[in-house]
Structure formats: structure tokens, C-alpha cells
Amino acid sequence: MISINTNSASSMAAYNLASTNVNLQRSLQKLSSGSRINSSFDDAGGLAVSMKLSASIRRTEATQANVNNAISFLQTQDGVLKNAAKVLERMSELAQLSTDITKSSDDRDLYQTEYVALSGSLNSMLSEEFNDIDLFGTGATLAVVTSEDGAQTVGITQANLSATLNTLNTVVTSISDGTGATQAELTAINTAIQSLADIRATNGSEQSRFTFSADMLAINKVNLESANSRIADVDVASESARLARFNILQQAGTAMLAQANMSQQSILRLLA
């Protein structure tokens, strides 16, 4: 049957061309954005999973920053402790020098002057801070979250440096009297040095734990990004092939639509 009012071939060609144009635009959008999912229509389930993975990645990055700050806190603390150790070593040396029987009282007074100054330097270290957080305290533990879900924590110790120094200040009162420092005073200094060594050992072990935690977070972030990429990122090679296919279909559809519209003109020959 030949009809003038209805051109089914043209309608079908127009429908196919419109569908091809939609698919072509989606393919162009994916390639231009680099994302396979640009709207919920593209992949509703994949979008939901990708959103959760993206949130986990952001939390992992934030946790990494927190852990790195904790490492910086411990490094700063250890830097102060390192200087404290040098001061204690010098104080130990001065105390031992004061026991020399060939030294006069004036010589011991000079040792005492330096000793007092060094003791003051040690006490001033107690007030050191990191971003307004005390480096030293009563040995309290500050819990640092080391997993993006908040389930794992590692502690930072606010080392009790004051206990070490208070004992030292109480026992070692003077190295200028008599024949210099007594055995009890020398022992107190050595005890303080041992205590400081213990504090630094604790600091080192905590730095080690945080370093491993930071490494684990970095690995988890890479794995999460890889998983999210498989869901959300476009496969350029595959999508390029689809784009070429839709381009060909668009050209063919345009040509067929033109042919379908021209077919109606054959009716004019019957009327002529």
C-alpha cells in the first residue's frame, strides 16, 4: 500500500536516528569526562558503590594526615628529648669533674654555675608544645585513630619528663661544696639518664607503629582507588570503538531518513 499521510519508513528512520544521537552524546560525554558513570541513569548500582568507595578514600586521606601529624608530634618530642640527653650528659660530666681533688673551690664554683644553667635549660623543656599540645605531661596516652572506619587506634605518650627532672633537682643540689658531687648525686644523674633513655625508647617504638599504620593506609588507599576506578572510570579503548560505531550509524541513519522522505515523491508519478 502506498500512503501520503503516513510515512512509516521515515518515522522508523527518524526514531533510529534519534536513538543513535542519544547514544552518541552519552559516548562523547563519557570520553570527555573520563567517567563511565556521569549520572544515576548510566549505572544506578555502580554509582551507589562508587559513592561509598569515594567516601572511604576521602576518610583514608584524612586519617593519613592525622597519622602523619602524630608522627610529627613524636619526632618533635624526640628532638627535645635528644637535647635533654645532651644536657644530662654534660651535667654528668660536670659532676664528675667536680670530684677532682686537684680542683679548688673556685673551680667547683665555675662548674656549679654551668650546672645550674643547664638544670634551668632542662626545666624549660617541660613547657615545649606541638601546635598548642603539650609534648610532656604525666605520661597520659593520646589515642590516634589509624583506620578510616575508626575501629583502630594507636596511643601517643605525653612523656613524664618532669618526674625525671624533679628527682634530679631534689637530689643533686650542689657540686661546689666540699669535694664536689657525692656518690648519691652521681647516681641520681645516671638514673635520670637511664630514665630519659627509656622515654626515648618508648617514643621510638610509637614512631615505628605509626609508620607501619601510615604504610597500611597508603596501601588501602591505592586499593580503594583501584576498585573505584574499575566501577567509575571509562574504558577509553572500548568507548572509542562505541563512538566510532555510533558515528557510522548516525551518518547511515541520516542518509536513510533522507531516502525515506524522498520515497513519497514517487506518488507524484502516479498522479501525473
By DSSP (H or I, 4+ residues per run), the number of helices equals: 7
- SSE string: HHHEEEEHHHH
* Contiguous runs where pLDDT drops below 50 for at least 5 residues: none
- Report how far the terminal alpha carbons are from each other: 18 Å
CATH superfamily of the largest domain: f41 fragment of flagellin, N-terminal domain
Sheet-strand content, in percent, reads 5-15%
CATH topology description of the largest domain: f41 fragment of flagellin, N-terminal domain
CA-atom Rg in angstroms: 39 Å
Question: Quick one: biggest sheet?
Answer: 2 strands, antiparallel
Q: Structural class per helix/strand content?
A: mainly alpha
Fraction in helix: over 70%
Secondary structure tally: strands: 4
What's the architecture of the largest domain, going by CATH? Up-down Bundle
Order of adjacent strands in the largest pleated sheet: 1-2
What overall form do the CA principal axes indicate? Answer: rod-shaped
Provide mean pLDDT, rounded.
Answer: 86
Q: How many domains make up the 3D coordinates?
A: 2
Task: Report the CATH C-level class of the largest domain.
Answer: Mainly Alpha
